Amino acid sequence: MNYKTALLSASLLLWGAAVSTSAAAADEHDRGRAEPRPAQRPAAAPRPEAQPPGPAAGRPAFRPGPTRPSFDGRGQVLDGRYNHGRYYPPRGTLRPSLPDGYRPYYRGRDRYYFSGGIWYAPRGPQFVVVAPPSGLVISVLPPYYATVWFGGVPYYYADNVYYSWQPDQNGYAVVDAPDNADEPSPPPDVAPSTQDDLMIYPKNGQSKEQQAADQYECNNWAKGQTGFDPTQPGGGVSGNPDAARSGYNRAMSACLQGRAYQVN
Q1: Full-model pTM
Q2: pLDDT > 50? residue 56
Q3: Which of 91, 107, 123, 137 would disulfide-bridge 171, Cβ 3.0–4.6 Å?
């Protein structure tokens, strides 16, 4: 009987201890939910990155350069003089063969080849980009050129070469750069000539500079063909000035129509 009583007493003691432990744990859990945790300190804001210093006192701020690069993807150089805006291979560039459509020219024993505004000369089995000598005459200007006026006379510019119309040779001669090449003059309002008798309209959107140059050259050509000069009293001819003027107008019209102008 004493053995059973002792066993029961031990069981009661163990159960009481377990209940106490569970109650303490529950009380601790509830207290943890009720009591606020200490506030967390906000993370420090990142320090701003150092900015590059501005321009030094007295120095201008950086300004971007021209949008067009000085070189294209093939190593050609931009010729931006007079707003020409074309790329050409540098002088001294070698190539194994000439491009299609080249034209040959001769100066004494020297040979030159012209294509797309670029001049070549033979060098061994290859061809080198060169500056042409003055005096070479071409019948047709390169496909791209800039018209520039100096002292009332038009020049044609491409790849650092100047050309001038030569009516006696019916072509364009390579000429030296004008002395005032950095100071071109504006084109005249009209070529000396035809505003009284002919009405001239560009058909291909020619610029004012180009139209003035075309009228200038056709005027020189028509004078050479007829002997009539509209800037001279009586056209500078003897005999019937009206007939001479009519012949001049026909020659002028034919020349301008060949350059894509409508003439009335």
Answers
A1: 0.61
A2: no
A3: 137
Which one-letter amino acid corresponds to residue 20? Answer: S
CA 17 to chain centre: 95
- The token pair at 3 is 């053995």
List residues bridging with 157 in a β-sheet. Answer: 146, 162
Per DSSP bridges, beta strands 118-123 and 126-129 are antiparallel
Q: What is the pLDDT of residues 145-190, one digit of tens each?
A: 999 999 889 999 999 999 999 988 889 999 999 988 999 998 876 5
Tokens of 174: 């390579």
| Residue 2 burial (CB count, 10 A) | 6
